[in-house]
Specification:
about 475 residues; alpha/beta; Rossmann fold; binds adenosine monophosphate; binds zinc ion
């Protein structure tokens, strides 16, 4: 299996530390708000990766943290704790916020058919592990205490910048919010392992430690949680590309300094979901959630389908137009599967042949769009329907589009099809929208599209004009 490794910037053959086993770590959500569909793009691609490892016969142990303390507004240790910000916004305690958004996250994952990791570990469960690791780093001379906080000393490392060739100017702060630099740091790239002197006296969660009452830095959480559950040698670490620096860079620095040997061999980074205004992010205030897509009448699996159509190492542009097209294509696919009949014996040789092709495309750096093409190829195969259904079932172990079930639902809906009167009304609305677009009356065209959307209708532009279908 070939996989691009962002640590070496090369496609490499994946060879795990222990034959047949994969230890996998995924940076989990910071549970101060709903996950947006950009975050979920990353989790969908990681889910496909995990399922593909299993498909290829590996025994996978996947660990994910839940960040419920210590992730500050800037990834570079400044600004307010995001959890506290969420608690203030909703006038609740940090733990109430954490529970609510953790549940919301897994409910979104379920709708998108993202499997739950084998281990889910909230950071607040592992304070002793964080303290032990920070103490270990102090004992080995990789950390220092300044202004009450414990810092990692990046000057002690031969090689600090693994992923990115940032220049000094970029590294000066490396933050997104307008915040001032921490004067306690000996080097600009040093980072906090344990906070005691927070600028924010109302920090809600604090624990006793050898260095005073305080709370852990965000980076130490992932290193210590991974070590706790996956041991000293991690095969693959995943996250969105924004995590590469400083978060993952700092994870490598502290884990390898602590262990005294290489820690994680493969790094898997998913590029961002962007809108026409740039990266989708929570700090921008307005963001799209799975619930919002559902309210607008989309099937969450159409969003999964949309994500699979593009490669994880390319950023993906989101627009409702693009999602409409994905929903329409997904509907058509479901309709084709719905037409298949259980018509005899499965031809295992044909299944094996398709399985091999599918495995080849995913085994070449996770080419999910070609994997989706394999689904269409299977539908065109020169074989009986029972064999086609068996192939689709097999592919679904990785793609998780639930096509066979969706097809069942589709068939049920067809038997209770709406009256033609409604179809005529929709035709009329579509025609009005086309006219509004011709007149460059975009507001009216959008209004009609939203109205149709709310009624469960998706529009698709085709060379023969606009076509509509039900979600
Ligand atoms: P957070 O909850 O902010 O810690 O982020 C959860 C995951 O989503 C991390 O792996 C981020 O790197 C990733 N992420 C954040 N924004 C985006 C985006 N616009 N597109 C894809 N992934 C993202
Ligand atoms: Zn992490």
């Amino acid at each position: 299996m070939l996989l691009y490794n962002s640590a070496t910037r090369k496609k490499e053959t994946f060879i795990p530390h222990e034959e047949g086993k994969v230890s996998m770590y995924t940076c989990g959500p910071t549970v101060y708000h709903f996950a947006h569909i950009g975050n979920l793009r990353t989790y969908i691609m990681e889910d496909v990766l995990e399922k593909f490892f299993r498909y290829e016969g590996y025994d996978v142990k996947r660990v994910m943290n839940i960040t419920d303390v210590g992730h500050l507004s800037s990834d570079a240790d400044t600004g307010e704790d995001k959890m506290l910000k969420g608690a203030k916004r909703e006038k609740k305690t940090v733990m109430e916020i954490a529970q609510f958004y953790t549940d919301a996250f897994f409910s979104d994952c379920e709708k998108l058919r993202i499997k739950k990791p084998d281990v889910i570990e909230p950071a607040t469960n592992c304070i002793c592990e964080f303290i032990d690791m920070v103490q270990g780093l102090l004992d080995k001379g990789y950390a220092y205490i300044a202004g009450g906080n414990v810092y990692f000393d990046t000057a002690k490392l031969k090689d600090y910048y693994v992923f990115n060739n940032f220049d000094a100017e970029d590294l000066a702060i490396g933050v997104r919010d307008s915040v001032s630099e921490d004067e306690n740091k000996r080097n600009k790239t040093d980072f906090v392992l344990w906070f005691t002197k927070s600028k924010f006296e109302d920090q809600e969660l604090k624990w006793d430690s050898p260095w005073g009452v305080g709370y852990p830095g965000w980076h130490i959480e992932c290193s210590a949680i991974s070590l706790k559950h996956n041991g000293e040698y991690l095969d693959i670490h995943c996250g969105g590309i924004d995590n590469a620096f400083p978060h993952h860079t700092n994870e490598i620095a502290q884990s390898e300094a602590y262990l005294g040997h290489e820690w994680c061999k493969y790094w898997f980074h998913v590029l961002h979901l962007n809108t026409s205004n740039g990266k989708m992010s929570k700090s921008k205030g307005e963001f799209l959630t799975v619930s919002l897509l559902e309210e607008k009448g989309y099937n969450p699996l159409a969003y999964r389908f949309f994500c699979l159509q593009s490669h994880y190492r390319k950023s993906q542009e989101f627009s409702f137009e693009a999602l409409d097209n994905a929903q329409a294509a997904f509907n058509k696919l479901v309709a084709r599967v719905a037409a298949l009949k259980e018509d005899g014996d499965v031809d295992e040789a044909v299944v094996a042949q398709y399985r091999q092709k599918f495995s080849e495309v995913l085994g070449n750096d996770m080419n999910t769009s070609l994997a989706v093409t394999s689904v269409y190829d299977a539908l065109k195969a020169d074989t009986n329907d029972a064999t086609k259904l068996a192939i689709l079932d097999d592919f679904d172990k990785v793609l998780s589009l639930d096509l066979v079930n969706e097809a069942k639902k589709y068939n049920e809906k067809q038997t209770s099809a709406p009256a033609n009167e409604e179809d005529a009304e929709i035709d009329a609305l579509v025609a009005q929208r086309t006219q509004a677009r011709k007149d460059k009356n975009w507001a009216e065209a959008d209004r009609i599209r939203d109205e149709l959307n709310a009624r469960g209708i998706v529009l698709t532009d085709t060379p023969e004009g606009v076509k509509w279908s039900r979600k």
